[in-house]
Amino acid sequence: LTNKTIIMEFLLMGFPGDWVIQTLHATLFFLMYLAALTGNLLIFTLTTADQHLQTPMYFFLKNLSLIDICYISVTVPKSIMNTLTNRYSISFLGCASQLFLVIFFSGTEFALLIVMSYDRYVAICHPLHYETIMNRGACVQMVTASWLGGCAYGSIHVAGTFSVNFCGSNVVHQFFCDVPSLLTLACSGEHILEYAFIIASCCFVFVCFILMVVSYVHIFSTILRISSAKGRVKTFSTCMPHLTVVTLYFFSGIITYLAKNFKPPSSLKVLISALYTVLPPTLNPLIYSLRNKDMQMALEKLTGVLFIC
User: Where is this chain primarily localised (predicted)?
Assistant: First the structure.
């Protein structure tokens, strides 16, 4: 017989080390959170206000920035507050809500990255039909499908994770509620439903990843057929931000979940998870705005207007 436990709250794991080290970690988290908020809010504002940034690519970028703001806000502020107050409890409903939101926003971001790769494919491989294919209605439909897909994805995993009975400890060895950490608390033999969802999700993600790779194979082959070197560099530069963000998204995710499978110490698991939850939302604004002349011009115009006011 398994010793089933009625859990009313979970205990999240804090940052490793003594109080001074924990405070330093919390400060670093706060600075990265502030940088992520500032960068993504700036991109959201520029792509909304500037008339020259009303193209499909910037429409998708605006949604990506909104997702990153929401995604990092689900986990980081509570983690910082837990460290500063030395209180690490989270209610059962709060944990379920946090899990849903984390998967919702990460799933939506993945779907949107696929849409953005399709946008680059059409822009480079079918430039004459770009405005017809990527019209306003089609862009809105693709973004809406991404948000709805992320919502369905989050709902399925929350239902699968919390359909199990929990046995023994309520300590989540993570600084936020995630599926692998919660499943380790489940009673033996009750992981089947969520594992089925995870396997199905992995298969779906793999198919989408292959489609993304295929689109970039076509993109690169089209770029290589451009006669002038300057034209090839200019065209390739329009793909670099998206390609970099996709690489960062997959690299951080793979590192995080491979590390979990190798069962590192709990303190190291917390630090590795920060790579996936904090790094992409913080770096995405820099990747898209650092060498983007349109974004730089829009920022100069906004700065000039604010200075005059």
Answer: membrane
CA gap 34, 175 in Å, rounded: 19
Model-level pTM greater than 0.85?
A: yes
Short-list 82, 114, 113, 121, CA closest to 98: 82
pLDDT in tens, 25-61: 888 889 999 999 999 998 998 888 888 888 898 999 9
Q: pLDDT tens-digit profile of 181-226?
A: 888 888 877 667 777 877 877 788 888 888 888 888 999 898 888 8
Contacts made by residues 42-49, CB under 8 angstroms, sequence distance 24+: 42/285, 42/289, 42/299, 43/285, 43/288, 43/289, 43/295, 44/69, 45/302, 46/295, 46/298, 46/299, 46/302, 49/298, 49/302
Residues 85-92: what's their mean pLDDT?
Answer: 87
What per-residue confidence (pLDDT) applies to 164?
80
